Amino acid sequence: MTQRVALATVMDRLAIDAVITGYAVAVDDGAWSDYGALFTPDGRADYRGAGGVEGPADEIARWLEETMRLFPVRQHLIVNRRIDLEDLGGYTGDRAEVRADYLNPMCLDRQAASGPDADPPGSADSGRARGATPDFVTGGRYTFELHRAEPGWLIRTVTVHEKWRRTPGA
Prior knowledge:
seven-stranded mixed beta sheet
């Protein structure tokens, strides 16, 4: 591998890492247009392994927007990223696979809660998580397939493989 090819490989890895980070930030911030921009035009997402749905990225973005309203506070941590770049005889190709573990703590919308944990409407904490303890935590692994396109690396598919979850009262 020449020094130029090695540098290009490092640059590809950094660009792919930025896409994966962008994915987590888009979901956590509810930036659904940013989420959609991370995918190829035929990109798909599969959340069935976590009890969700599968489909084109734009449809999944709408589903996530609706679903994530229950959890106004969320923070994906995507770690242990393993990036496998397509190898074309010593040169990086235009495809990559990323396997990465995730930990996703989320806090329920207190306006939707009932009982002693509910905040009164209009209070300073209304709709926000009280305290630092998440109500719902899930962990597992993402599998991303990425393709190089004109604007850079984009997600072709993402599949969620939930390994465990902790829910309220568990």
